[in-house]
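Box 3.1. Reading complex inputs
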Amino acid sequence: MSERVQLIMLPGPTMVPPRVLRAMAKPIINHRGPEFKELYLGVIEKSKKVFMTKGDLFILSCSGTGGVECAISNAIGPGEKVIIPVNGVFSQRVKRTVEIFGGKPVEIPVEWGSSVTVDAVEDAIKKEPDAKALAIVYNETSTGAKVKCMAELGELCDEKGLLYIVDAISILGGDELPVDDWKVDICITGSQKCLMSPPGLALLSISEKAWSAIERTNRAVYFDLKAYRDYLKEGETPFTPAIPLFYALDEALDMILEEGMEARIERHRRCANAIYKALEAIGLEMFAKEEFRSNTVIGVRDPKGIDGNMIRRIMREKYNVVIAGGMGKLKGTMFRIGSMGNVSMADILITISALEGALQELGYEFDRGAGVVAANEAFKS
Amino acid sequence: MSERVQLIMLPGPTMVPPRVLRAMAKPIINHRGPEFKELYLGVIEKSKKVFMTKGDLFILSCSGTGGVECAISNAIGPGEKVIIPVNGVFSQRVKRTVEIFGGKPVEIPVEWGSSVTVDAVEDAIKKEPDAKALAIVYNETSTGAKVKCMAELGELCDEKGLLYIVDAISILGGDELPVDDWKVDICITGSQKCLMSPPGLALLSISEKAWSAIERTNRAVYFDLKAYRDYLKEGETPFTPAIPLFYALDEALDMILEEGMEARIERHRRCANAIYKALEAIGLEMFAKEEFRSNTVIGVRDPKGIDGNMIRRIMREKYNVVIAGGMGKLKGTMFRIGSMGNVSMADILITISALEGALQELGYEFDRGAGVVAANEAFKS
């Protein structure tokens, strides 16, 4: 395997700081002993600060998709209706998960690159007054569009008695999401995005209202939240946890709390802003509409006549910078830059510089250097 | 957290060699890029050698229980009967998983500490001729009893047209289990037992016969084997994999293949034998009947009048040796020693020595030193 050190600018996984990587090399401990108990309870307490919740929180050994499955399979009973705004690959996946586990998805179709409005959700609730839940992807990793009315939707769900289930996988820890203030009942994220840990853990917060829904269901084994709750009393997980990933997340959470959530969100905002300014200066078109632009995932349309796969290949092979392509129906039409976790000004200047180099090599016409200058300027302001 | 280095003699997780721990600190890579493809395909190829299969094999980011759920939820359709010999906590869990996912378990009750016979399974098939599968726990981690007729059961399933699903979590890589020769259709193991890797990965082999069952079902998302098969064509997993754990497993598999499976199984047999000899010399009673004794998990009844929790506590606090207690209905009645993975003569002499120390402190009467002498003798033979 290559010995080159790559700059990973993916919408997950993201760069893991050396301090976090090193934490994984600690010796294995008994997952039913006092050492793991201390580790697990500590990770939960720190995670609650990042989620800004006083509710329950669990750490599962699986990816973010496993976390979403856990939320749906525990909280939604057979035949129950779930309103789902669909504007990308990950909201499609939420819809499919509801179907597979016997719920009835009520789709609100939303243009990809755009996001749902409060009015659209209100209309859906009017049409389906017996809907049990709203399940929404806060930040569509496949397009780079984020929902702008999350707090209002929380109020609406609270008022109408719907569960508010939020897939916050590519945004929590990098943008605003005060779980309790926004009345989120189940919030899911993954370790490998804004939390700058290796992939393999999903984090779920559970409100009191969510528990009353969960009590009625019995369709999960590995993702059985009631088992997670029972075992938490002893500071344990029901099944063997991925211990090294807990070490890593623990260290990453320390770093996150040392930086402070406010400063962290501001850093993400500034980094994303610099990328957007740079891309505009290069003359590229974002996939998401300006008002819905994400602060963590930047989706960009391939320039006319230029193969996006070649852009990514040159960036990776010549510049050691790794970005992502399109997903689902957007494959071959766009590329995506993750600006999350430990991301810094230096990372962005290297990424833009590599992108400019690749574009020039592929014959794209633009004012060479304009992107780097624009990014630099953005960081000064 | 304690800085003491503990000797983990649990029935999983087991000690992870430093070489394997260090492998996790490698930088994060793109799970949709050439670096992960090389890693993933390499791990699969090496795992197939350990499983002794030419069939398909997948690595899931979850614990062994997640792997069992994957097997059941993919291979068993609604209302389909599954014959399950139940002789411990983990076979109970297989039964529950079948129920939760809509199958009909046909339990063969087996005395705990004992194991099922071919006759009993034949009888069950006669009574339930439409049974779809036999799901069996090869090595009951909760008792230390292993099934002695695995090859014969494979023949029987083949003859009768049943799927043969084997939970080999606490045994594969430490005892005989040639998956293809024994006609196992789905074989599941975890990374943290005999494979001496950190917990967090499950490995599943899938036969052609198993695929034809899986094609008909559609009840999994995170554990959807058809998605795993589709993504494998690109050398990818459908959902973000726990990358550092793949690095670790890759390194551990190299070590396993360097040692050779035959030598490895013989080492496990010799280590377990030394433990049994030592325990007998101390006058302790095994939980499993002699003919069913496992070569990887040793279950021991608490001596009369001695609190097993205190044995374990003294061993941990004074000797830094960590063993397990009883599970389920056996809690508070026994302790369990894992002798798996990287286990060596030195580990066993320390463990027996610590056990003797704890027993003496608790007033148990025995010939002090007899266990260590017996273990030493056993290794000489």
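In summary: Chain B touches chain A through 62 residues (CB under 8 Å).
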